[in-house]
Amino acid sequence: MTTDSSHDGVVHHAPGEHHDHDHDHHGPAYGLMRWITTTNHKDIGSLYLWFSLIMFFIGGAMALVIRAELFQPGIQIVDPMFFNSMTTMHALVMIFGVVMPAFVGLANWMIPMMIGAPDMALPRLNNWSFWIMPFAFAILLSTLFMDSGGPAGGWTLYPPLSLQMGDSFAFVIFAIHFMGISSVMGSINIVATIFNMRAPGVTFMKMPMFVWTWLITAYLLIATIPVLAGAVTMLLTDRYFGTSFFSAAGGGDPVMFQHIFWFFGHPEVYILILPAFGIISSIIPTFARKPLFGYDSMVYATASIAFLSFIVWAHHMFTTGMPLAGSLFFMMSTMLISVPTGVKVFNWVATMWRGAMTFETPMLFAIGFVIMFTIGGLSGLMLAITPADIQYHDTYFVVAHFHYVLVPGAIYSIMAATYYWIPKWTGNMYDETLGKWHFWISTVFVNVLFFPMHFVGLAGMNRRIPDYSLQFADWNMVASIGAFGFGFSQLLFVWIVIKCVRGGKQATDEVWEGARGLEWTVPSPAPYHTFETAPDITKYAVR
Amino acid sequence: MTTTDHSVPTPAPLRHLMRLLVGSCALLPALAIAGWDELNMPVGVTDLSADVHGLHMRIFYVCCAIGAAVFGVMIVSMFLHRKSRGVKPATFHESTKVEIVWTVVPLLILVAMAVPAAKVLIKMEDFSDSEMSIKVTGYQWRWHYDYLDEGIAFYSALDAEQNLARQRGADDALEQFGDTYLREVDNELVVPTGVKIRFLNTAADVIHSWWVPDLALKKDAIPGFINENWATINEPGVYNGKCAELCGRDHGFMPIVVRAVTPEEFQVWADEKRAETLAAIETQHDPRDLPTLLAQGESVYGANCSTCHQAEGQGIPGMFPAIAGSDIATGDIDAHVAMVLHGVDGTPMNAWSGALTDAEIAAVVTYQRNAFGNDTGDSVQPLDVRAARSTALNAATEFDMGVTQ
């Protein structure tokens, strides 16, 4: 496996360069068992990141099946049922298998190094929370090969439709439970680490923004994943044990599921973006060579977003019929979210203002993030206007909106983070020219892919359909071309990562001229164990 | 049909901004092939839809202005404040004053948006004084319309020919139907203009959503619950819509066609429709010969069964059983009729007793037993189906024509 060999490359250096450690501290074991039994935060971080990269291509292949079918009107390639199962699985894989594990992987790698801790607080739990994931996804993906086909009722699993699913249903529910357990354990670990493992002097208001955003994200996860677990368990008992939580015929209510689901689902949206905010808040100051503007307000804005995320859930449900007071409340609370989000964007721009910028790949991705995330945020503001939302709802306008915040948003932040920290992880500089190509190709295609979706959505194309009338043909073809371009250009990313893991120009300890933070005070590559003795933070800037 | 609001006067700076935006869109390939009406929300044909469109354009301009300001500052900064120009980075990193400004200004913009939005929302939710009520029921995968006061009720599904054609192959269907592909139904919803119509949405199986963009109507149809919606249509015309909530395999194939006509024309249509329905009820149990049954059966099959069992009755292995050569369709006739009436629990096979008339069930069973090489030569008469219904088990499943006799 590339995983093993590539990481041997990293770690062989480590024991050699590692200094003054005594007796039972040692480098990693060799072979497969190293990865299965590891409790080292850097190993586990790498495992999460490789896992996420593999799932990115699985989820991406599903997206390409969708876009291939939608390339022209008419049903050419897949059965509509399989098409539905592709949209469902694409979402589940991308959310739970790509963005969340990638952020957990980055947290594992970076949080201990950023706060001057030797490792995560709960290393064995850490191992377990990773190793649940491959099994959970093996179960989830195996449903595609069952007679009844994979889940095809949308990732939101709305009953009664989701209850029509065949035998794969129980497997999907269990897979979601496993992913949830993994996320909750990972989050508990992150909270415990941040509270207990900070080096002396690293106060809360000195923590890097990435640590702050992850602390808040971890709380969101701990609060909402059990709600999701409850919702899917109720589906399970409705399906197999004769309960009627969501069936009107038995005294239940299908819309109640949507309320419970979105009480999880909306904070989940911020789970997918808050760590990205942290990453961008680390990268922009580095390449602007100027401290982050408005650190305090960034912390408060993140906390406000997290709080507001719990009181806006029904904006996903404006067409289900709710009392006027409810519609008004959820409209206004949703609009409010744009205030702290705006503060963050303005702070990033103010950080760039009068800096001395250079545009290495991480900075390109970070700026791409700010611009395209803002486009997604602005269409989000449009979606908050309830009467208009009722028309946008369940159209490609919504698809365009959330893909703008998730692909050139969350995914770009993960790529920015990879380019930013990979010299620290591997000790080698990545290929800057290829990195820039990767950015520009991706950015052109991602816009060709998602921008036209605004148009077809407004013009009346509904979501989750395998076929459409001729009026939407042109823009769908454009979007599909963008999809294939974007999809295949990610192979370049894989090549750049592998190339960097294998070798390259030796990275310095600081790596970037304007970098601040404890992670840049350790050697490159980071030794297997770092900060076994707490760093003297009077000598280094923590953020 | 409809275009954007080029006619609506916009302030000069906004017009300039729009031009900028259009200009930037030109970066995308193939802009030239699409007209404006394929890019934007329709203004629609009700006062409410015009209000919604107005809100949409207003918030769109606000977003463009915010975007232009933020991206403008970024672009200027990226040009001026780059290391290659030899600049020294400033060291400022906070300003409470600035933070307060960019918290309060967006808040004010939001208030300015929230007030008109709330007004439209309140108007939307005002169901009083409606002059006509139509119950809309979503089924997998068609609609049922029940004019509560007129005594008219019928199903409306994707045009049967289109439904069969799209299953035989995309190219045929596209060539045959062109621009009307997936936009025609067998029974259009005919409504009068200038009348406040209340729509009551519900569903029989899973959640659907009844959406007609030109009427600015989208409300979920939820099994066991009834949602309200209303429209007063200003202009006669044909307005297309579709199901907006994922409802299973053929979610993409349940279009809506609303035909708005003058109240006088509506009255004529309603009288005809009612007479037609009554005539159908009167003659529904008359015996038919085999060719008649087969002809009607083919169209019933195309509209209802072919979705799963496929155009040639071949089914989809592992998902939907074949009818060609099946034990049911070549075996006991009563068992075949019973399966169509009651469906099969725990599978996507619906009970059709409430959705199809005795005559339709007789026709489609006859068709299935003679088509696809089944060639049994059997024929089922409407009276046979009525007999099958009238066993104790079936008493409650009488077909509801929506007409009180």
Q: Could you list some keywords that capture this structure?
A:
heterodimer; A: 543 residues; mainly alpha; 16 helices; globular; B: 405 residues; alpha+beta; Immunoglobulin-like; Cytochrome Bc1 Complex, Chain D, domain 2; five-stranded mixed β-sheet; 11 helices
Describe the structure in your own words.
The complex is a heterodimer of chains A (543) and B (405). Chain A is an all-alpha fold and 543 residues long. Chain A is built from 16 helices and no strands. Chain B is an alpha+beta fold. Helices cover 42% and strands 15% of the residues of chain B. Chain B has three domains: 12-85 and 95-124, no CATH class; 132-171 and 181-262, Immunoglobulin-like (Sandwich), CATH 2.60.40; 284-404, Orthogonal Bundle (Cytochrome Bc1 Complex, Chain D, domain 2). In chain B, helix 1 (12-25) crosses helix 2 and helix 4 runs antiparallel to helix 5 (170-177). Chain B contains eleven helices and ten strands. Chain B has helices at residues 12-25, 47-80, 96-124, 160-168, 170-177, 263-283, 290-309, 327-330, 333-342, 358-370, 382-389; strands at 132-139, 142-147, 152-156, 189-192, 196-203, 208-212, 217-221, 227-232, 237-243, 255-261. Chain B is elongated and about 90 Å long. In chain B, the strands form two sheets. Chain B has a five-stranded mixed sheet. A five-stranded mixed sheet of chain B has the order 4-10-9-6-7, covered by helices on one side. Mean pLDDT of chain B is 84; it is low at 1-17, 19-34 and 394-405. At the A-B interface, helix 4, helix 10, helix 11, helix 12 and helix 13 of A face helix 2, helix 3, helix 5, strand 7 and strand 9 of B.
